[in-house]
Amino acid sequence: MSFQTDSQSNFPRHVAIVMDGNGRWAKRRLLPRLEGHRQGAKSVRRAVEFCRRNGIEYLTLYAFSTENWKRPQGEVSGLMKLLMQFIDSELEEIHANDIRLMTIGDLKRLPPHVVEKIQAAIEKTSQNKSMVLNIALSYGGRQDIVNAVLQVHEAIQAGKIEQSEVTEETFEQYLDTASIPDPDLLIRTGGEQRLSNFLLWQSAYAELYFSTVLWPDFDDAEFMKAIEEYRSRQRRFGMISEQIEAEGRRS
Ligand code: IPE
Ligand code: IPE
Ligand code: MG
Q1: Does the pLDDT at position 7 exceed 50?
Q2: Where Mg(2+) is bound, by residue (predicted)?
Q3: φ, ψ for residue 210 (rounded to 5)?
């Protein structure tokens, strides 16, 4: 039976994951780093299935950061190849499960043949309604914010909006994530406790969960642990417990 993301079950609507630890997973086995990324792709499939099954509406996966361009060229091109393979092997099933694919980040920096494949996949799944799989590719939170500032500036110059109309709500409409809600739960695997430039604005009130499990080993049981931890927390958004409890009684 699948769960509903209503206030009863208290499931997150949007989960964002920093999929870290592929390299260490491989190193421990004396394998090339790329083998870790290959195993990591299997975890991606598993995580998508988990979310679809449990009624989580949005899953954002940090697949490649703006800083990851600094990695050795062989690793970068290997990751691009894996991304292509992932789309080739998973797209049909993603589509059959009514999942819409989208990306955030600077796709222009990716090789043109990769961009074409991604855009075709986005197009094919654009009408799907049951879940959004959002892949962060060449994504950086700071870059996202700077781009938004530049677009707001342009809109003001063009007379499309007034400076006085620039609020948090209107500003957000210029971020890459404009069409989706902020993440409720942000998970990082691999043991590091940092954001590494992921969804900086959007995570202002996300619940953070750090797992020491390396991404290729992150399975349904680990995912459920993160969900259970999330469900046990009280999100106060600056208020006090009593206010949240009163709100809960009203709804
Ligand atoms: C995360 O795993 C995947 C990407 C950044 C693409 P890493 O490759 O960072 O793995 P570790 O941190 O070296 O173990
Ligand atoms: C963050 O992991 C980026 C992705 C998971 C895509 P990194 O491994 O690049 O982060 P740092 O360098 O350890 O902060
Ligand atoms: Mg890492």
Answers
A1: no
A2: 20, 207
A3: -110, 130
